[in-house]
Amino acid sequence: MKYARTTDEKAYQDFLKEILFENCFGWHNSNIVEQHSITLGSTQRLIPDLIVYKNNTAQFIIEVKHPFHTRRHDDIEQLASYMKQLEVNTGIYIGSAIEVYYKKLGNGSYPDLILSTTFKPDDPKGEEFAHLFSESSFSLEKIEQLYQKYIEEKEANEETHEIIKQLCTQDTID
Fold this sequence. Notes:
Layout (H helix, E strand, L loop, with lengths): L8 H16 L7 E3 L3 E3 L3 E3 L3 E5 L2 E8 L8 H14 L3 E5 L3 E5 L9 E6 L6 H10 L6 H34 L1
Parallel strand pairs: 5-6
Antiparallel strand pairs: 1-4, 2-3, 4-5, 6-7, 7-8
């Protein structure tokens, strides 16, 4: 990604589509739809940057920002809106890093960040991302498993924090 030295978001999107998803991950150009317009009512439109299809069904959405963009909350709200309208539970945000979001459909929840990787060759999460999103190994079941692992780790961390909180409270009472 260090070769994508552009501040032009569209040029960066084209680079990612061609180099990363087509050449490296094996997605055929016909499986990737760019700038698809989704009409909401009579005047509003949503335009996701990239939608990746398999078996004529949208599998995941990619929101691309220029490589020097720092992610903001409204960037993920934008991605969540695309996910909701297309009824897709997986969204990828690509800016200065790659972030994978998962959203349970139909429950109105905000998407959870389940995987984050940098563009550095030594980032171990990069290999996991490549395996998850390569056309030959992609499956919604693998994404669901990653989400379940995320939920289990989140619950374990919450339990640990609660135990620590109780222990600290007991120490101050005694």
